[in-house]
Amino acid sequence: MEANADVNLAPKQDLNEVFLVGIIRENPVLVMLLSLCPILGVSSNFVNSVGMGVITGVVILFTNIMISLSGRFIPNEIRIPVIITIIATAVTIMEMLTNAFLPDLHAALGIFLPLIVVNCIVFGRAEGFALKNKLLPSILDALGITIGLVLAFGLMGFVRELLGTGAIGLLVLDLRIFPAEFAVPLFVMPAGAFIVLGVIVGIISTIKISKASKEKKNA
Q1: N or C: less crowded end of the chain, CB within 10 Å?
Q2: Number of domains in the chain
Q3: Domain range for residue 165?
Q4: What DSSP string runs through 122-191?
Q5: pTM for the whole structure
Q6: What would the pLDDT profile of 108-146 be if each residue is shown by its tens digit?
């Protein structure tokens, strides 16, 4: 099998930057606005949200490793089907493990688990980064994106569950923050997901604009 001649390795990058970029500056959900369907669909519960973020991150890590190791040997004509097959393999493994060891989480995530196969973040990191980089940068990229995903999913789940129920469920423990009668059930409904996401993205955008304006004035 001939090496993929169309894939050129990216120039050397600062490994710290590779790791950190996906956490805040290019957070895949809160900045790039990717993976919105699952975060809107499962984020009514903090534990489920974090679980979805971790599972997606593990799939990204597995895919990045496999593509980084084998990408240059994949003919360009079948690049996309091969990447999708690798992603589907990782998703199937994670779905089986979740069903075996965390059946409640598996049931709660439902259709959003198999839909990770077509998640644009997973495919984008595999084709846009891992295919052009060596193993270590690809692993760091996946870990940074994973942390960014978990932060985004966790933040959404925390805010929605807290405002919608007045408590945060932590597996076997329900941490009551304020009385249930002061909760607003809207926030655990679909409309609440859009409201919370919009507010969080608006706050982040405002901070970025303010920071850029200060830097421009100081330049």
Answers
A1: C
A2: 1
A3: 5-218
A4: HHHHHHHTGGGS-HHHHHHHHHHHHHHHHHHHHHHHHHHHHHHHSEEEETTEEEE-S-GGG--GGGGSHH
A5: 0.90
A6: 999 999 999 999 999 999 999 999 999 999 999 999 999
